[in-house]
Amino acid sequence: MFSTKKIVLACGLGIKSLARQVGMDIPIRPQRGQILVTERTHPLLEQPFVTIRQTQEGSFLFGASHEEVGFDTGTTLEEMRRLAGHAVQVFPELARLQLVRCWGALRILTPDTKPVYVESESCPGAFVVTSHSGITLAPLHAQRLSEWIVEGVAPDGFEQFHPRRFDA
């Protein structure tokens, strides 16, 4: 047993059961995405694309799959071929690079794919923070969310992230 004035529930796909314990229903579902990683090479891309990016170390990452497969985090040869084929079609010079690994991971998606940021009404001080994109939303997560949780005042516009938007 523990006691605290504030707690942030940010546990990915486990959020449904934890949120229920503080009186909230958070509608989420898993969606698999697969990523391919190449060997390192000299810089070829100055700007990242949505589906193709080069790391600072020189590896390329290809990925833009959106697969409805439940909680399966595996990979498939069919999807790897599709991702690699698209990358080579966009940048033919990538065909000479060796793939070194691939993986599948699960996104946390709401029905509208937008984040949920909400404080429990029945258990004040319990916050739910869930989003499939911690990277692209990092500036928001690092600054505005932490201020909201610490100071207790939701920033303007945060009502659009409340789960009651799904009640319509």
Spans where pLDDT lies below 50 across 5 or more residues:
none
Let me know the number of strands.
7
3D shape: elongated
Total helices: the number is 3
What is the gyration radius calculated from CA atoms? 19 Å
Q: Which sheet architecture does the biggest sheet show?
A: 4 strands, antiparallel
Order of strands across the widest beta sheet? 3-4-2-5
**Helix vs. strand class:** alpha+beta
What topology emerges from the helices and strands here?
Layout: E1 7-9, H1 15-20, E2 29-38, E3 52-54, E4 60-62, H2 77-90, E5 99-109, E6 116-119, E7 126-130, H3 138-151
Parallel strand pairs: 1-7
Antiparallel strand pairs: 2-4, 2-5, 3-4, 6-7
What can you tell me about this protein's structure?
It is a single chain. The protein is an alpha+beta fold. It folds into two domains: 7-28 and 110-167, no CATH class; 30-107, 2-Layer Sandwich (D-Amino Acid Oxidase, Chain A, domain 2), CATH 3.30.9. The chain is built from three helices and seven strands. It has helices at residues 15-20, 77-90, 138-151, and strands at 7-9, 29-38, 52-54, 60-62, 99-109, 116-119, 126-130. The strands form two sheets. Strands 3-4-2-5 form a four-stranded antiparallel sheet, with helices on one face. A three-stranded mixed sheet has the order 1-7-6. The longest helix has 14 residues, at 77-90. It starts with 6 loop residues before the first strand and ends in a 17-residue tail after the last helix. The mean pLDDT is 89.
